[in-house]
Design goal:
By secondary structure, this protein is α+β, with helices and mostly antiparallel strands. The chain has one domain (about 1-250): CNF1/YfiH-like putative cysteine hydrolases. It has helices at about 45-60, 130-135, 135-145, 170-180, 200-210, 235-240, 255-260, and strands spanning about 5-10, 15-20, 65-70, 80, 95, 100-105, 110-115, 120-130, 155-160, 190, 195-200, 220, 245-250. Strands 4-5-8-7-9-12 form a 6-stranded mixed sheet. It starts with 6 loop residues before the first strand and ends with a helix.
Length: about 260
């Protein structure tokens, strides 16, 4: 079970942060959600999902009760850990500047993203589908990290497993929204066999560049979730019968804090 957990990690996220994007194996969910389903919204038993989350936390080495997650609504709002939460807590991004909390971002084709400033020791996470990408949720995470002392030039960003341009077929109305937001950005629109495809990674790089993040600090080449059913869940492939991934990031305690 836990021995089967595989975690996709990015080399751009430096030491001092717990982070990763778990693949679908190593949990206890069954059927199309087998096996490490980490999301509760599509019908899996809540106790099973909670057990999966605790299996992951034990494997990674964080306190499962410190996991911070919110309801994603394909929006652009970002919550800072410690702020009062509305009911329901509808945020697609989270930020934090102290060890302990682990931020989670759910996805099942959309992009789960994690952010780390190793100088200011601030982290963030977000869920970015096409609406959140156009709306600039990643830039809003950067802005909220800056409120906590981060500098855009120091921020590292990793894009987690998500649907690639090979599989993200969209209608002309979606293409029009992206062209309105990004212009004729090279590589954004890719001709497909039936309809145009979009490359959300290209758009995300543009959003982050506008926010001041250096392209050299962004890992924007994750695997495609739809293409690899043995490794990843995919809403486009499996619908709501399938499972949900969760990217995570948190600040590791400093040596001084650990000694104290």
């Amino acid at each position: 079970m836990a021995d089967d957990i595989r975690i996709y990690r990015s080399p751009v996220i430096p030491d001092g942060f717990l982070h990763g994007f778990p693949e679908r194996t190593g949990g206890v969910s069954t059927g199309p959600r087998a096996s490490l389903n980490l999301g509760m919204r599509w019908g899996d038993d809540p106790e099973t999902v909670d057990r999966n989350r605790r299996i992951l936390a034990a494997h990674v080495g964080y306190d499962p009760d410190q996991l911070q997650v919110t309801k994603h609504v394909h929006g652009t709002e970002v919550w800072r850990v410690g702020e009062p939460l509305p009911d329901p807590p509808e945020f697609d991004g989270l930020v934090c500047d102290h060890p302990g909390p682990v931020l989670g971002a759910f996805a099942a084709d959309c992009i789960p993203m994690v952010f780390a400033d190793p100088v200011a020791r601030v982290c963030g996470a977000c869920h970015a589908g096409w609406r959140g990408t156009v709306g600039g949720v990643a830039a809003n995470v950067v802005a909220r990290m800056v409120e906590l002392g981060a500098r855009p030039g120091d921020i590292r960003v990793a894009l987690g497993p998500s649907i690639g341009p090979c599989c993200f077929e969209v209608g002309p109305e979606v293409v029009a929204e992206f062209r309105a937001a990004f212009g004729e950005l090279p590589g954004l629109v890719v001709a497909g066999p039936r309809k145009d495809h979009l490359d959300l990674r290209v758009a995300t790089l543009a959003v982050l560049a506008r926010a001041g993040v250096d392209a050299a600090h962004v890992d924007a080449a994750p695997p495609c979730t739809r293409c690899e059913p043995a490794r990843f869940f995919s809403y486009r492939r499996d619908g709501k019968a399938g499972g949900v991934h969760m990217g995570y990031i948190g600040l590791a305690p400093t040596a001084a804090a650990s000694a104290g």
